[in-house]
Design brief:
With 141 residues, the chain is an all-alpha fold. The protein is built from 7 helices and no strands. Keywords: Membrane, Transmembrane, Transmembrane helix.
Length: 141
């Protein structure tokens, strides 16, 4: 089986997002603010609380697991448990998160800002990349 390039790309994108979250931890409060984590998270990081670090590590870990599942679905790694359920779930999460800006535009335009627009666009692109790869390998899952 030839490895699926779209799922490999999806894995790389998820890995980049995971690494970026790790960078935010080391970048500190200014990075939390810049990347749109919110003032509460930034202030909590500034105060030295562990909550922002823990939340960010959980997100980074989850994204790392998602990268591994994409690589397994691509045929680069051995199949992972529940792969036929997990890969569509990952794809759905990315696509649904990508639609948040649309939902905000329709229902709560006051809260729609550059962070929500850009992060939704990025997540939607990630979701489309995963979806194309998933459709291509569906019969082999």
């Amino acid at each position: 089986m030839t490895p699926n390039l779209f799922l490999i790309a999806g894995a790389v994108l998820s890995a980049i997002a995971a690494l970026l979250h790790i960078c935010v931890i080391f970048g500190g409060p200014a990075w939390y603010r810049f990347f749109g984590a919110g003032e509460r998270m930034a202030a909590s990081a500034e105060a030295g609380h562990l909550y922002p670090v823990a939340v960010t590590l959980v997100i980074a870990g989850m994204l790392g697991v998602w990268a591994a599942y994409a690589l397994a679905g691509a045929g680069v790694l051995q199949p992972l448990p529940l792969q036929a359920l997990v890969l569509p779930a990952i794809t759905a999460v990315y696509l649904l998160r990508g639609l948040v800006a649309v939902a905000m535009w329709l229902f709560d335009r006051r809260r729609l800002n550059a962070f929500w627009m850009w992060s939704s666009l990025v997540c939607f692109v990630y979701g489309v990349v995963h979806l194309v790869g998933l459709v291509q390998v569906w019969d082999t899952l």
